[in-house]
Design brief:
30 strands, 33% helix
């Protein structure tokens, strides 16, 4: 049965998810939001296509690990007689002739380790969202696969006929496979892929070497950071919310969404976490993407999400040829949330840009022109701070004035005041600070419920929502503020289920939620720490780490009873939560010096 115990590989152009048997079961071309070449993950209970496997005859054990500080996956298979093979999976990623080399390609190196192993390769790509994909032997060293919109070529030094017909053969020497665009492969396949492997490994290790990681939980932070970087589309700087689509939030829920797009909110949290590690390359690339989004809006409406090339229209449709994860369809392509009204986006745009006015390490610091462009975003925040929207949880059938959205609008004005001060624009600082103060007063009046002694998630009701915890991270409230302490107590009592936090516990468009939202648990951990419950925070964090997959990652949701992971994977929110909590709770480096 399919599960989410998957290992991502990628190069910030394409990515793939590899299951515990070493099969590629998910991967899209020509980029993360494209057509799945490997679709088995959402192909039903026993998909007959949409995967790429290297199978050892009579295999009895499989072990997997990443090469240290890289997304290069090594899978070792052993058979009944002790014969063994090693499969190395990666997407080439390194500097070449002054440019980043990140082809639309997947590489596999298969090596004999012991005895006389016999293997079978099954490469069964799909096209057109689960449709068949014609293949033919294209020459003595390659196979050709015709997709709907492009052609792919497998170049190899393996016996092509045996691969094409999926025959078993003895592995007596290392074999190399390069699945990429349908064009001639330059150079000796073995020597070239071995060199690519070495250069890719060096590139990732150099990137990790530059991270400012905490003393404790280093492997957790490094793996989360690498996986977050895999969620960035290097060409534009866009950061997708997850690598997958349509993994249900819980069994049979119909809450199957396509997360392969750039949410302004999710990307803000991602760059915030990576900034704490000093990964400024991700921030700078994303800010370039954001500037184009703001320019395109021309001072007008900002959508909650965009395509990785900045596309504004992401019409949602079904893929009927795919049965869904474990047969739990539908499989959705596109996301209709692009048409929603979510006012928190204005705050997240300004917050993402705020560091650029202060950080002298950046190649391109923000200046007056950038500030003036962001003022247009601030105007929208001011105009809509107390107007109804769909909220951060993207409710599809009703709107309210959400406290979280209003607080983000406050943050937009507050941080614009900070930026103006950094630029020496005193009049603009006073202007934006006055607006921030006005919004703060409006929130404090409209969201506070004196009878229940807590803030409400909406201005009109008395609603509990985990997003209220974020008022601490935004610096809207301080840890010692009695209003925050009382609100945290209410949220924990109403939404905590054992070691996990729900987003909310009321019915939405699809009924009552059944799974917890992983990032909300990490928000709780942060709040526990700041309100003096450090031991509780540390214990809860350690428990959350036991919920990770073998690859060290988390999806969006978790069943609070069984601990099973649900929702799209790997999910940036969840990875951000692990980074932020590790950095917050770790002992300082000075403790060992």
């Amino acid at each position: 049965m399919m599960d989410l115990d998957l290992w991502p590989i990628g190069n910030c152009q394409v990515s793939a998810l590899v299951d515990r048997g070493g099969r590629f079961v998910w991967g899209c071309v020509p980029r993360v939001d494209g057509d799945p070449l490997f679709s088995a993950l959402v192909g039903g209970e026993t998909p007959e296509a949409g995967f790429w496997s290297v199978e050892l005859e009579e295999c009895v054990s499989t072990e997997q690990t990443y090469r240290r500080n890289t997304p290069i996956l090594v899978t070792r298979h052993t058979d009944l007689a002790g014969n063994a093979i090693e499969v190395i999976d990666f997407c080439p990623y390194f500097r070449r002739m002054g440019r980043s080399y990140r082809p639309m390609a997947f590489a596999r190196i298969v090596r004999p380790l012991a005895g006389s192993p016999r293997i079978r390769m099954r490469l069964r790509p799909t096209s057109g969202w689960g449709g068949s994909c014609a293949s033919r032997v294209g020459g003595s060293n390659h196979l050709r696969f015709q997709l709907d919109d492009l052609a792919m070529r497998l170049t190899t030094n393996a016996p092509v006929g045996m691969v094409h017909e999926e025959r078993v053969f003895r592995l007596e020497r290392p074999l190399h496979f390069f699945l990429g665009p349908d064009e001639a492969f330059q150079g000796d396949i073995a020597a070239t892929l071995d060199a690519m492997l070495g250069e890719t490994e060096e590139e990732w290790r150099e990137w990790v070497r530059g991270l400012a990681i905490p003393l404790e939980w280093q492997e957790v932070v490094i793996r989360s950071a690498i996986s977050l970087k895999l969620c960035q589309h290097a060409e534009t700087g866009a950061i997708v919310a997850a690598l997958t689509t349509s993994i249900p939030e819980h069994a049979g829920s119909q809450r199957n969404w396509d997360y392969r797009y750039c949410w302004i909110r999710d990307a803000y949290y991602t760059v915030q976490a990576l900034n704490r590690l000093g990964a400024l390359d991700v921030l700078e690339a994303y800010l370039g993407y954001l500037r184009n989004i703001v320019d395109g809006a021309r001072g007008g409406h900002i959508q909650p999400l965009y395509g990785v090339l900045g596309e504004g229209v992401l019409e949602e449709r079904f893929a009927p040829d795919l049965a869904g994860y474990r047969g739990m369809g539908p499989v959705r392509v596109g996301n209709q949330a692009y048409a929603q009204i979510q006012h928190d986006a204005y705050g997240q745009i300004v917050l993402s840009n705020a560091q650029a006015f202060f950080d002298q390490r950046l190649f391109r610091m923000a200046g007056v022109e950038d500030f003036e462009a962001l003022e247009k975003v601030g105007e929208r925040a001011w105009d809509y701070h107390d107007q109804p929207d769909a909220g951060l949880w993207e409710l599809r059938t009703r709107q309210s004035v959400h406290t979280y959205s209003a607080a983000m609008c406050w943050a937009a004005c507050d941080r614009l005041a900070n930026a103006a001060q950094a630029l020496g624009l005193e009049a603009r600082r006073a202007f934006w600070q006055d607006r921030a103060d006005h919004i703060r007063a409006r929130i404090e009046t409209a969201a506070w419920r004196e009878d229940t002694r807590r803030l409400s998630a909406t201005f009109s009701g008395d609603d509990l929502d985990a997003s209220l915890i974020q008022l601490l991270d935004l610096r809207f409230l301080s840890p010692g503020d009695p209003r925050f302490v009382d609100t945290l107590t209410a949220v924990e009592a109403g939404l905590r289920r054992g070691s996990h936090m729900l987003r909310y516990a009321t019915e939405d468009d699809f009924g009552l939620p059944e799974t917890a939202f992983n990032v909300c648990t990490f928000w709780l951990i942060e709040a526990l720490h700041f309100t003096g419950r450090g031991a509780d925070a540390r214990a809860l964090f350690e428990e959350m780490l036991t919920r990770r997959t073998a690859a060290g990652l988390l999806s969006e949701d978790i069943d609070p009873v069984s601990g099973e992971l649900w929702g799209n994977y790997p999910q940036t929110y969840s990875l951000v939560g692990m980074i932020n909590c590790a950095a917050l709770l770790s002992k300082p480096w000075s403790s060992i010096r």
